[in-house]
Specification:
CATH class of the largest domain: Alpha Beta
Mean pLDDT: 88
CATH architecture of the largest domain: Alpha-Beta Complex
Number of domains: 2
CATH topology of the largest domain: Spore Coat Polysaccharide Biosynthesis Protein SpsA, Chain A
Number of strands: 9
Helix content: 40-55%
Structural class: alpha/beta
Length: 340
């Protein structure tokens, strides 16, 4: 059994970390349809009425039907809440809750849902307000996560198919082939939150640390899950149509214009600022990290304070890496310029 043909822009390369058991994932997806574990969709909104209906329709169209939607609106001044109320009234799902967000930005809004004790499920899926999910997004994520013991934090993420405001194909997000790890997570996030699905153990891990001030909720999920010795599954199958528009909080990063923007950020010290924020948060919860990952964090933090030669050597000894050759060249440039 193969995945449905949903890709028309170009054939997606088959190389991926799920290759060794892709057929097993397909078989499990069929089995899960009968077991129907509960998925809590954690949807954060703010002034999202332009595209919210398409996102909600794609959630309702999932081939995994046991879903509750938990929406946290962060002070919308458009018709977002009217749209949410309308979908809640449809009664097509067993549960649909609308809450008021903390109005402290998108990270705090997502963390408010992670922390909320009323939300109980088998799996938890982050959802943005302006994307489109492929119909099998949840079933394949759950099938992959089912292989992980319940007491091990596990996080699934995937590539995205990038589309414009009208849903027309533009590109794919980069294909990453190196294994997910804490050493990678310190300097790069491999999966957008709009693709992420996690088990209860990962959710509980994030709950313990959700008061931490971090750069983004999805990057923090990757950092903390790997740091605690959990499992991160990266799938090259693009399970989400990631819409690009003028109000994206974080934009697409695979074209050259986006790369030039990120180079400019690097030279201005933006990445150094981000690393400051994330490493400070990690030091506050270092007891959650494995001893090996505590050592990687300490090596990385020490190297960041050194002069040139010890700085380069310290980063190399820490083992941190990005997923691509170009990314690693950028990392080394940042190390030399002390902009990381």
């Amino acid at each position: 059994m193969n995945r449905p043909e949903t890709i028309e822009l170009a054939e997606v390369p088959e190389a991926k970390l799920l290759n060794d058991y892709d057929e097993k994932v397909v078989d499990l997806a069929v089995d899960i349809a009968t077991k129907a574990p509960l998925v809590a969709v954690l949807l954060c909104t703010r002034n999202g009425d332009r595209f919210l209906e398409e996102q909600m329709d794609s959630i309702y169209a999932q081939d995994h039907s046991n879903v509750t939607v938990w929406a946290s609106d962060d002070g919308s001044e458009d018709d977002t809440n009217l749209i949410l109320d309308r979908y809640r009234s449809l009664g097509e799902k067993d549960g649909f809750s609308i809450r008021s967000g903390p109005r402290e930005g998108f990270v705090a809004n997502f963390h408010s849902l992670i922390y909320c004790p009323d939300i109980q499920a088998d799996y938890y899926a982050y959802a943005d307000q302006d994307d489109i999910w492929e119909p099998d997004k949840l079933s394949y994520a759950i099938a992959a996560l089912e292989d992980v013991p319940n007491d091990i934090p596990a996080l699934y993420c995937s590539r995205t198919r990038v589309v414009d405001e009208n849903g027309n194909d533009m590109d794919f997000s980069p294909l990453f082939e190196k294994p997910p790890s804490f050493a990678n997570a310190l300097v790069q996030n491999v999966g957008g939150g709009n693709t992420m699905v996690m088990n209860n153990a990962a959710r509980e891990l994030l709950r313990v640390a959700c008061d931490s001030i971090v750069v983004s909720h999805d990057w923090w999920a990757y950092i903390l899950t790997t740091g605690a010795g959990g499992t991160v599954i990266y799938d090259s199958y693009p399970s989400v149509r990631y819409r690009q528009h003028d109000n994206n909080m974080v934009g697409h990063n695979s074209d050259w214009r986006a790369r030039l923007v990120r180079l400019r950020w690097l030279l201005k010290g933006r990445f150094r600022e981000w690393n400051n924020i994330n490493t400070q948060a990690l030091q506050q919860v270092r007891h959650l990290l494995t001893p090996e990952n505590q050592s990687i964090l300490d090596e990385f933090c020490t190297a960041r304070k050194q002069w040139l030669i010890p700085r380069i050597w310290g980063v190399k000894r820490s083992g941190v890496y990005r997923q691509t050759l170009l990314g690693n060249l950028g990392l080394m440039t940042a190390v030399i310029l002390k902009k990381f």
